[in-house]
Specification:
This protein has three helices and three strands; from the N terminus they run αβααββ. It has a three-stranded antiparallel beta sheet. It is of the alpha+beta class.
């Protein structure tokens, strides 16, 4: 069981580690229920603004489901956010 993340930058760093290159996806409801992240779309925008490739598709519930590719827009696999 993972603990809740509470600080915005820690949430962003956590999401990068949790999603980047793992093939995992997350919806807003998942993020809130499992990790206490209330505004997932804002955190995804921060990842995108930092140069990561964020993919969005539609879950069976009709909600947005996010994934992050391993490489950023420059081809690097280096971590962008540090907790």
């Amino acid at each position: 069981i993972m603990s809740f993340t509470t600080i915005k930058s820690n949430q962003t760093a956590f999401l990068e580690t949790y999603l980047r290159g793992t093939g995992k996806t997350i919806t807003s409801a998942d993020a809130k229920a499992r990790f206490g992240i209330k505004n997932l779309s804002a955190r995804m925008s921060e990842l995108r603004d930092a140069g990561l490739v964020v993919r969005v598709d539609t879950a069976t519930t009709g909600k947005a489901r996010y994934a992050v590719s391993a490489r950023d827009m420059f081809g690097s696999r280096a971590k962008v956010f540090v907790a």
